[in-house]
Sequence to fold (325 residues):
Amino acid sequence: MNRDISLISCAGSLPENQLSISCEKIPSNVFSAGNLPPSGHRQLWRLNKKENITRLIENSLVTALQQINMNVKELDSIIVNLVWPGNILYEEIILLARALNISCPVIPVSLGTAGGMTALELGWNQFASKNCNNVAVIAACNYAHWFSPDDPVRSLLSDGAACAILSREPGMHLVHSHTIQTYNYAPLQFDVHGEYIKYTKESGEFIFKHLPETIYDCCYQLCREAGKEISDIRYFHIYDPTHWVREVSENALKVDGGKIFTIFDKYGSLGPAQNLFALMELGSKEYISENDLVVLFGFGPSATATSILLRWSNIPFSIQNVQVD
Fold:
């Protein structure tokens, strides 16, 4: 894998529709942990129509490029992960390509919530070609709309899109990545009518029981292969689609809780876009310094888990609320 590739710009797009949820008043769901009850409030961001995710994707791409005075004609490829596309043709990508008159290859990645980090890894791999200079990686989520309106899991879910630009130019250096399989976790299922997606209580319990081992294995192997120790990492963002991930990650990695960065209370679960939103939130903090090491860990049950090591550098970031509905 090319060692001279950097992330040079990142932008996120959220719908204007914001919900504030009192955690004490919501019913438990299949991901609830009885010994780690939620507290306080969380913010969720929702589209009225799941089809409008294309507008958020477009805005994040255009903004990420504008921040570094680039346009789509300078991209050699675009990698897109969406949870979930409306159909097998990934019609959202077709609409995006038409709207922006995109001529470079646009490659879909279908790997659930793990797809954001997989897309970043795949985007990095594009630079194996000497003719590749700039790649856009997009991760987006509209999966609240794929769950039944009365499913308590919806109280965790938001809609949004994020875009990262990778380049041979200097920026936030991509150091190493490591991927493991999560085939032993239960997959999502359709309900009896085939209309909505659901998790079973047993699959939620399995995640709570086995996720710590997955976090440790993936992050430890990443650091070992990169010649680093867990203690060398300034911040970890562990994919946090629910409130208890921070404490579980702290215990799994045996690090101080201050090293586990979480955004769940502010954004809910943005699926595959979660890690990129966390990276942008880290950029707004004063307590991260040039050359600090950061690990992003993405996870999808019955798919993969991918951890990526980055060397921090200040680059353009922005998160916008977009009127799309």
